[in-house]
Write a structure and sequence with these properties.
This protein is α+β, with helices and mostly antiparallel strands and about 160 residues long. It is built from five helices and nine strands, in the order αββααββββββαβα. It is globular, with a radius of gyration of 16 Å. The N and C termini lie far apart (about 50 Å).
Length: about 160
Amino acid sequence: MQRLFSLTPVLVLALVLSVPGQAVTAPSTPKDGEKCPVCGMFVKKYPDFLAQIVFADGTARFFDGVKDLFKYYFDMERYTNKQTIDDIAFIYVSDYYSLEPIEGHSAWYVSGSAVYGPMGKELIPFAGEDDARQFMQDHEGKSLLRFKQITPKLISELD
C-alpha cells in the first residue's frame, strides 16, 4: 500500500503534463552537451548540484549549481534577450541530501560552508529547515537563508 501512495504524485504529474496545450513545467534532466549559460560547464557532469529554471513556455535553462542559477536570475538581460523573470514558471534546485529536485522558492540555503560545488563556494539547498541546520553544524555553515534573502551582493561574495 505504501508504494501506491509514493507513485500517486508521479501519476498526477504525468496526467497534468499529458494535457494537450500544456507547457511542460516539471523538473527535467539536461541533455548530453547541455551547458550552463553562465559559466559554460557541462551540467550533466554535476547532477548533485543541478539547478534549473523552467519558463512558462516549457523551455529550461540548466545550471551546475545554485550560485550560477542566481547569477542568471539577477542578470537575465545579460544571458537572454527572450525571457524575463516574469516568464519563469518554476525554479528547481537539488536537495543536498536526497539529490531530488525541490522548488527553489521554498528551499532553505546554507551559505559559507566548507562544502564546495563545481564552481567553488556554493549555496547548498535543502527541502527542510532541520536538514539545513544540521548541515550548518556539520559543515561550518555561516548563514541559513530563504530565496528572497539571497542578493546579488551575497552571490558576488561567493566568487
